[in-house]
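Quick one, T. Sequence first:
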Amino acid sequence: MIPKEILKKIRRIQIYTTRVVQDVFAGEYHSVFKGRGMEFEEVREYQVGDDVRIIDWNVTARTGHPYVKLFREERELTVMILADISASGSFGTVRRFKAELIAELCAVLAFAAINNNDKIGLILFTDRIEKYIPPDKGITHVLRVIRELLYYRPEGKGTNISAAVEFLSKVTTRQTVSFLVSDFFATGYERPISIAAKRHDLIAISVSDPRERELPAVGIMELEDPESGETVSADTGDRRVREAFSKIARRREAARDDFFKARGIDCIKVSTSEPYLRALLSFFKSRERRMAV
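Structure tokens:
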């Protein structure tokens, strides 16, 4: 039985994200993700102005009159969301926890998909595959996806991005648009992601909190890794400690960004301290401009 507060949250997210999708970037979503190509539909008699390159010469020869082929775009997409629900998502120091941001952001993507008549699937992962919902359409299906994002209680605490990406390749037989949503506090995922990006339109969404880059000067602070449970004490009053912490964080972020750029993988950066819609819209606009060139 799902608690009433979770049901209320699902309803709130449904109302909010539906409005956002319809009012803000429904058009951008449609324009930046391509279908699987053009599919033959029928033939009709040639009309003045038709492109001679689409003449069906076989039918023309049989009938003695020129006929042309008509095609329609095979628009339907399969959209997969790979959502990191590891213990590090329980961290957040500004407006919300990272896990809450991930859930709502994924809900927006799910509603955008079904609004465009695409299929949506979900892979929840920690250091293992926690839950898999095969791609499907419809409001009932997308509400199930959102319910799992909000309500599912993972068994694992760590993060294994490689396992999630490899699982994607096992359960999908055709190309997908796949959103990999994580804080990327993991290692060793470069090769699996590189392989998956050759087959799928893979978009990374990096979720962060400002305190993961900079420590406040509040004296002795005990820092705990929520995934491993390890703790360490740090004197945040010492400027050198704060600078060293920031340097390590920025170096890690730069290495991740360089990897995605080298593989031609788009990376959307969102933070608990800023509205995520701005980052999503910027991504859609940027991709739309690149496709227009």
